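Re: the 146-residue chain
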Amino acid sequence: MRLRLLAASAALLLVPAFAPAHAADVSCTLHYNLAGGGAFYKHSTGTGEVTCSNGQRLAVAIESKGGGLTFGHSSIVDGVGKFSGVSDIHDVIGGYATAEANAGNGDQASKAQVVTKGSISLALTGKGTGHTLGVSFGSFIISERK
């Protein structure tokens, strides 16, 4: 009886060693520059770098496309984005859904928005220059820079 109890206890101790591991969320940040604009159809492009708490780094290209009742041109320099729901740096690659309302004039233009791709979200903030006014919907696309 004691031998069976000892064997069962040893087996229970080994279970965690064979249980599937779930990757912990990794904290990732995007530092970016973005410029563009338009009337009714808005298109902006830029570059950035994603860095993660596990030491991974990735140079990225950014493209934002959308339509709606929007007019103007803006430029964001030294913008910052915070990702959530990331397990690996390559999870950040892809298209994110956007919806935004903006108004800016001159050197005081600022922007804050959250974009989503499945369970991953990206909170973007930035200050820059430009003249913008409107409401738009579209996509925010991150790709690996070549």
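The longest strand covers residues 57-84.
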